[in-house]
Design a protein that fits this description.
By secondary structure, the protein is mostly helical. Helices cover about 85% and strands about 0% of the residues. The chain contains two helices and no strands.
């Protein structure tokens, strides 16, 4: 049962990484002076969630 939870967390991490990368590419292409200055903070926090999800997922697999 715990392996399934670990696998789900790893899938969440991959999905969060895809969304972060997609947002970063869109921001690079379409960003201008009207873009919020806090978007890079949001993207860095998103990457932090990716790391946390990966650590939890991998630790559940080896528990």
């Amino acid at each position: 049962m715990i392996y399934i939870i670990g696998f789900i967390f790893i899938l969440f991490a991959i999905w969060q990484l895809v969304l972060t990368w997609r947002t970063f590419k869109k921001l690079k292409k379409e960003g201008n002076k009207d873009t919020s200055s806090f978007i890079m903070l949001a993207l860095s926090n998103s990457l932090l969630f990716v790391v946390v999800f990966l650590v939890v997922g991998i630790s559940c697999l080896f528990f």
